[in-house]
Amino acid sequence: MQTEPAFRAYDPAAIEPKWQSHWDATKAHEVRDDLPREKCYYVLEMFPYPSGKLHMGHVRNYSIGDAVARYKRMRGFAVLHPMGWDSFGLPAEQAAIERGAHPKKWTYENIAYMRGQLKRMGFSYAWSREFACSDPGYAAREQDIFLDLVEKGLVYRKSSMVNWSTGLNTVLANEQVIDGKCWRTGAPVIQKELPQWSVRITHYAEELLQSTYDLPGWPDAVLIQQRNWIGKSIGAEIDFTVDGRADLKITVFTTRPDTVFGVTFLSIAPEHALLDKIVPASHKAAVDAFKAEVRTVSTQDRTGDTAEKKGVFTGAYVISPVNGERVPLYAANFVVADYGTGAVMAVPAHDTRDFAFAQKYNIAVKQVIVADGKEPSALDEAFTEVGTVVGSAQFNGQRSDAAKVAITDWLASSGKGRKTITWRLRDWGISRQRYWGNPIPFTYGQSGGAVPLRKQDLPVTLPDDVRFDGIGNPLEKHPTWATTANDGSPLTIRTATGPEAARRETDTMDTFMQSSWYFARFTCADAKEPLDKKRVDHWLPVDLYIGGIEHAVLHLLYARFFMKALSDVGYGTVREPFKRLLCQGMVCMETYQRDLGDNKKQWFYPDEVDVTVDAKGKVIGAKAKTDGQPVAVGRVEKMSKSKRNTVDPQSLIDTYGADTARLFILFAAPPERDLEWNPDGVIGANRFLKRVWVLVQENLAALRATTAFAGHAKDVTGADQAVVRKVHATIKRATDAMEKDFSFNTTIAACMELMNELKPDTLSAPVFKLGVTTLLRLLAPMVPHITNELWSDLGNDGDLTIAGWPSFDAAQIDADDADYPVQVNGKMRGKITLPRSLSGPALDQAVLAHPDVVAIIAGRPVKKLVVILHKIVNLVLG
RNA sequence: GCCGGGAUGGCGGAAUUGGCAGACGCAGGGGACUUAAAAUCCCCCGGCCGCAAGGCCGUCCGGGUUCGAUUCCCGGUCCCGGCACCA
């Protein structure tokens, strides 16, 4: 007779949507703003760009965040866990150009679809706080904040060089310039000077730098990257007068004022403003030719790896302020106009690059620092270390690091130089010549000056009736938008002589602006004003922020800057946005490829190849199914469509359910590490969930009929006692992982171990129930659907959030006896068991008296006995 | 070039503070159930030697500290990420 299971099968497609509807209907994950802060927790994942559908990187990011959010709720915290959309940006305009879809329509359709996917994953967001950056409400309030920044002097307009596509008539980002050509049209990209709106992030350079030493919850890698990016450099400016032109001086910036007596030439940026005034007629042609040559090369090629260090003698000489020596002035391609002063004093003896340049152009090398106790001698390479100063007048004999200060002070006292700090960090240019962004709330009168809008004239909203042909900025080409006020009348500004016709700024803001304060808006998404100071101060800083490390110096630096600026314009007192930062690794997968020559590769989807393995299961080759010919098993690389190594989360959910997807992704690797996708591993995760399901369903009646064991491990014996101890040990491991390093992989491993010991045949019903209920509670943050379903099947009323995270008793973890591995001279030789309570000399005696130990010693003299309590015994024998 | 991170079985990974290396999972091998397959369950699973008991080797490589090193120190190799003529 056919044996039908007496219970229903595990069917994620049925139970998962059921719980998701329940959470929606009961608004289970909304949170109050008025509870004591110490009972509150704000966990946030980087919000997505609504590109169309979730990718596996999102699933990983949000699975990690959701596990933390649900864990904290189980611990009784009021958890703020919001979600929104980083919805301005270029892909929407690309879609408009390529498919004729309006950016707004395309964006909001994508949002609707992806919101559905997030809900189908069971992520516990406070959906009432959701917004998209392109929502009029958010964009308008950002304009409001922008005007506050203008008021505070943190916004200005200046001309700067940009990559300009001659094909698209628009500015391109550096990464959109390929081989000096436009990525889309292939048209030449030129360097063009354009007025750009900039935000004064450099105003906060020092605070941004110093605070990195006060962010213990951030990974060092990110902090170090930010410090390097900010690039504080302490040195001196030194003035060199132009020979024969007492009215002109060239100021250099150097971090090595101690080597100033060794200067044998100066290098200056080809774009330097003074150059034209200095170059004599005899050298004008050569210098102009060099300038033209430099200009044709894109910045990246000029400063790239392979770029040759080149220069040209300008025909001019400068006079050293320290010894009156006359040294030549070179224009050099490696000197950057907008760093330092755009001119460098060259000391070939003590700078590697200057040394190479001097060799190439046959310029003198003058050594002014020697290794301690050595004499100057001909140099094969630059000596860049600290040493003793020579050839430097009254500074001879000093240590070179001390001479830095002494020489700077001496120069300062005579007005020829000064101590200076330079920064690598530049102000943030936010102008983008694009439609799908937040308009910059400025206008231009007929006289040309830029005038900020008044707050009552906000918001500036994007017109819907725009055409996308891929050329230029649709806002600029719109017939009326730029000249029409919000009430439909012609746009004017007030001047001393009365109203004057005006035209709107048609540039929109960099989308990093929106992501710089969205986390603050989540605390008060319903506020009329841009930010509700009280709630901002209540919730911020975010307790845990989770996202990819690729944002280490862009988004994460901008957001830190914005928080300080927001505070300075009155939106709260918090100056750092994120208390703890978790950077998750990439999601990767094996690739299959065939080299077609010419640097071209053909990539294969995993289901297009057959993989062969050897007797141990090691992959030894692969063949294409279509032609049976070999394909190379490529490296494990970040999932990308071009390499055909992606897995669509939706198909995963459809096949195995959200819980399996979440469990696998949390189990396969710790959060910070790259995760290698493994389809077999997914099956394994699913198998584990099924086993949990069957374990409960098979024993449902017995489980419902009893209450979980609540006594002490010492009250029971045998398998019961072992399981009670295991329960406490597992809770401890899981709790430590959640609190310390979010190592969900080991938490899941511990849960698997616990389940492997839950044998209903050998356990009393109460202990079995303790094991099962503990297992469900520990797994609940990671796989909320199946655990809540089973919890409910066990006859519980409330869900697992209410049931709470279990607590452990450390005293019940360890057995009465302790195992001591026995080593001889550091090599394993046996194992003995002794009472855990033994310690000190009594323990030593018990060890030596143990028959196994006596046998191991075999009469040899014990030179030393090492006994580490509850850990190990090591006998040092002669 | 500079800065940062990493290297552990066939694979992903574990190992608390210097104390039994390889937890847990995947793959692989063997078995049970089945007419058969799938699913499920049980056993084995770092390498070498050995019938076995057991022994030797083993955490990228070479040294060192220590009773004891995957862990700490010194030197090197390779891989990944970031920055880069930044004066």
Taken as a percent bin, the fraction of beta residues is 15-25%
CATH architect. name of the largest domain: Alpha-Beta Complex
The unreliable regions are: none
Distance between the termini: 71 Å
CATH H-level name of the largest domain... which superfamily? Valyl/Leucyl/Isoleucyl-tRNA synthetase, editing domain
Shape: globular
- Overall tally of structural domains: 6
Could you tell me the mean pLDDT? 90
Oligomeric form: single chain
Biggest beta-sheet profile: 7 strands, mixed
What value does the Rg take, in angstroms?
35 Å
* The CATH topology of the largest domain: Isoleucyl-tRNA Synthetase, domain 2
**Count of runs of 4 or more consecutive helical residues:** 27
Architecture overview:
With 878 residues, the protein is an alpha+beta fold. Strands 8, 9, 10, 11, 12, 13 and 16 form a seven-stranded mixed β-sheet that branches. Strands 26, 27, 28, 29, 30 and 31 form a six-stranded mixed β-sheet that branches. A four-stranded parallel β-sheet has the order 2-1-24-25, with helices on one face. Helix 3 packs across helix 4, helix 21 (718-740) packs antiparallel against helix 22 and helix 23 (765-779) packs antiparallel against helix 24. The chain has six domains: 31-133 and 512-584, HUPs (Rossmann fold, 3-Layer(aba) Sandwich); 146-200 and 428-509, no CATH class; 233-421, Isoleucyl-tRNA Synthetase, domain 2; 587-638, Rubrerythrin, domain 2 (Single Sheet); 675-812, Isoleucyl-tRNA Synthetase, Domain 1 (Orthogonal Bundle); 817-877, Ubiquitin-like (UB roll). The chain has 27 helices and 35 strands. The structure holds one RNA strand of 87 nucleotides.
